[in-house]
Design a protein that fits this description.
The chain has helices at 12-22, 33-39, 41-50, 65-78, 91-102, 121-128, 132-145, 155-164, 192-197, 207-210, 215-225, and strands spanning 2-7, 27-31, 54-61, 82-86, 109-113, 150-152, 170-173, 202-205. It has 226 residues and is of the alpha/beta class. It has an eight-stranded parallel β-barrel, surrounded by five helices. Helix 4 (65-78) runs parallel beside helix 5. It is globular.
């Protein structure tokens, strides 16, 4: 299981300072919408000057198939290690993305976003007309059959996804609260032991790390648990 540290801070300066503090640790960096819209690929270049971090660019692409494939091809050129897109875009879009990326000499891992961990059951069902577990299973099978490398889901769906697809099909699970911190805007959260028990391949942790007085110490504690 690998740790992705969410770099969602209010400025590029804060992101770069955190990267310096975490240099040399066995982690991935998750760059999300806030940071990428503000700083663009320049932030990735600056992070690369600090250390050779693995980067998960978390933009959750969702558009028509050709537009998604064009976008993913551009992201592959940047050289990030993992990207994601919404499974809700459908199998045609996901297959088009993978067809385009598989033609490249090197491509990033591609994950499908299933049900956001901020969803509670009632709100999700009102939108998708399915309960969360049913929808995640359906989306995950579709992503697997479309040739993607894995899915973004909650810890509680990880084992179900692997059992329905393949044990090597990646599950990346946000909403991890390593030491039982507040949920904030997440609904389906879990601790490290639950993530391990459900065979998550990647866990995402943000605020418990970057809001800590000593982020490196927190990350070291998490890594020792993993």
């Amino acid at each position: 299981m690998k740790l992705c540290v969410a770099f969602d801070m209010a400025s590029s300066t804060e992101c770069l300072e955190l990267a310096k503090k975490l240099k040399g640790l066995d982690i991935w960096l998750k760059i999300g919408l806030r940071s990428y819209l503000r700083d663009g690929a320049r932030l990735l270049d600056e992070l690369g000057k600090i250390a050779e971090f693995k980067v998960f660019l978390d933009l959750k692409l969702y558009d028509i198939p050709n537009t998604m494939a064009d976008a993913c091809e551009e992201l592959a050129k940047i050289g990030v290690d993992m990207i994601n897109l919404h499974a809700s875009a459908g199998s045609k879009a996901m297959s088009e993305v993978m067809s385009r990326l598989n033609a490249l000499s090197k491509r990033p891992l591609v994950l499908a976003v299933s049900a956001l961990t901020s969803f509670e059951e009632a709100e999700f069902k009102a939108l998708y007309k399915q309960n969360i577990n049913e929808a995640v299973l359906c989306m995950s099978k579709m992503a697997y059959e479309s040739g993607l490398d894995g899915v973004v889901c909650s810890v509680y769906e990880s084992l179900v996804v692997k059992n329905a697809t393949n044990s090597s099909f990646i599950t990346l699970t946000p909403g991890i609260r390593p030491f039982n911190e507040d949920k904030n805007d997440q609904a389906r959260v879990a601790d490290l032991a639950t993530a391990k028990a459900n065979k998550s391949d990647f866990i995402v942790i943000g605020r418990p790390i970057y809001r800590a007085s000593n982020p490196r110490q927190v990350v070291e504690s998490i890594l020792s648990e993993l």
